[in-house]
Amino acid sequence: MTGHDDLPVAARTRQLEERLIAAGLTSDDEIDEFLTRLYTKASPVNGARMVARAWTDPRYRDLLLSDGDAGAAEMGFGDLTYGLRVVPNTGSAHNVIVCTLCSCYPVSLLGPSPGWYKSFAYRSRTVREPRAVLAEFGLALPPDTGITVWDSTSEARYMVLPARPDGTGELAEDDLAALVTRNGLIGTALL
Amino acid sequence: MGGQTGFGPVPVGESGDPPFAADWEARVYALATMLRRRGVFNSDELRNAIERLPPDRYLAASYYERWLAAIEMLVREKGVLP
Amino acid sequence: MSFEAGARVRVKARDPDHHTRVPRYVRGHTGVVLTAIDRWPVPDDCARGIDPPREETCYAVRFSAADLWGSGDHAVTVDLWESYLDRA
What we know:
Chain A is an alpha/beta fold. Chain A has helices at residues 9-22, 28-41, 44-56, 58-66, 68-74, 107-110, 120-125, 130-136, 173-177, 182-186; strands at 83-88, 93-98, 146-151, 156-161.
């Protein structure tokens, strides 16, 4: 294989793609279809729906926390390629997700991960100084809030179940889901 | 990577938020998925290849540049291209 | 061998020349098993193309920041395969 490390990365990518297509290993259509599906189906809206259900249905909350895969399946997400683990935030306990080794992330339920999630800074510092990292997101937790950092080192993918915001007792499930943000599901924001 | 210091602030904000900073990054991500589906390599082989990049290159490259270089490496090693 | 919830475990201080799912920052450190998550192929085998890979129970193990870093009041939880661990 001729090396073309000096080519701009976009050209290198296209060159690799063309060679893989020529070898019958993929096609433009397959790549386009995959990306279209990624952009349209994989979304934090999915995780948000599960959170809203957990806020309104104690049985579902118990299921989601004890068996994330079953909780996802019940909401129509039965085709996970990972084991889902959901960790609940409370007034005194805060959870935040990271992957120090690569960038493991529950893509189908949260959408493709943001650039910062894959940065050296987030990956290196979150396990060591989560309060400082969260402060950079504008999140200042009280000193007596206990923080647990979940380093996604296995086939399990983690999602935070945020605490339900005060004053939302009247809201229907769809309206509650609209309050849930991607960063809330990672643990870098409160709702 | 976990616990290392000196990487500075997390790139929070508009420039650090998009999953893919350019179209080629998304296509690298897609290619990795396709090659896994074809059984050319598995996720751990891809991670292993990323970690086998020379350290100076590893640290100088962007996230998806590392993926691209690792995929190129694996494709070469596996001999799947003529 | 298996570990029950609450068991104290020490991470083996190995530094293999291939990909492993043991972050350096927990090697040699002691933590507490929260739960057995599932049985999965051992990534070290998958990374080297060993077929079939060993399959083992993977545990969520909780470490205190003070133990890992000498400071900090948080906890860090890492998922670790059985052969990464010894009973402490």
